[in-house]
Amino acid sequence: MSTDFQQARAALGARLRELRFTCPGGRLTGQQLAQRLGWQGSKVSKLENGRQTATPEDLRAWADATGHPGAYPELASWLAGFESHIRSWRRALANGFKPLHEGLSAEIDRTSDLWIWEESVVPGLLQTPEYARHVIQRYADLLGGAGDIEDAVRARVRRQEWLYRPGRTLRVLMWEAALRSLICPPSVLAAQLDRLTGLIGMDTVELGVIPFTVSVKIVPANGFWILDDRLVVAEDWHAELWLDDADNVTLYKKVWKTLRESAVYGAEAHNVINAARRALSPR
């Protein structure tokens, strides 16, 4: 978790503690407040010490229970401010996959230059519908809370229209592992690899592959997208990070450029993809 995020969560916790200390009827202990709210005492402590992220419902209940209902808009604003940087998968998926995809699609729509690094999966902008369906289903199985798989697949496919708009440039780097990971049946992966070979040479797409056999100058981990040098979207198991500060954008761009030094393009990339394709259909 980022230091900035943790500091913001701790600051919100300090504000919550201040509200508990200044109840109109007198200061409440943490246990007394927990009893009013019907919570375990540990939850009050975790929220105040920045060890747990509050939900909007938590904040409204806290404001009401401490006699400060008018403080809720302020608390909600704090939460929205720092959650704009780290978006919990579980919380986001409570509303299904489709809104999650549409949020990123809106950012991509206003982007002209997009840099992508993926270490173990083909990027969504290049996925076939069937491959996308299996990837999304795997996340749904892991995280739960989403049953709109087909809506998510359609949203992901519609997002690919971006590739065919004038003035757009997509620069993709993939580790060879992304070409070989059987996140789907071999036949589905074979079709996906065929699509990748068809994209090589497309004037709006620059596709690079880092083979297993080459030396790398940085650990090939953590997929991320860089949108117009203004936003980085990086994925982890628990959350999606949206980073818009200049220092982080510069850092991720440096990581991308360092990885690119180990990549192959054109005919060499075609050979790596074809080798992965042949491995799926051994004679």
Topology summary:
Elements: H1 3-21, H2 30-37, H3 41-48, H4 56-65, H5 72-83, E1 86-88, H6 89-93, H7 97-109, E2 113-118, H8 129-143, H9 149-159, E3 169-175, H10 177-180, H11 186-199, E4 205-210, E5 224-227, E6 231-235, E7 239-243, H12 246-260, H13 266-279
Parallel strand pairs: 2-3, 3-4
Antiparallel strand pairs: 1-7, 2-5, 5-6, 6-7
Strand-pairing-aware structural class? alpha/beta
Number of domains: 2
Q: N-to-C terminal Cα separation, in Å? A: 47 Å
Number of helix segments? 13
Could you characterize what this model shows?
Pfam families: DUF5753, HTH_31. By secondary structure, the chain is α/β, with parallel strands linked by helices. The chain contains 13 helices and 7 strands. It folds into 2 domains: 82 residues, lambda repressor-like DNA-binding domains (434 Repressor (Amino-terminal Domain)), CATH 1.10.260; 193 residues, Endonuclease Chain A (Endonuclease, Chain A, 2-Layer Sandwich). 52% of the residues lie in helices and 13% in strands. Strands 1-7-6-5-2-3-4 form a 7-stranded mixed β-sheet. The protein is elongated, with a radius of gyration of 23 Å. The mean pLDDT is 88.
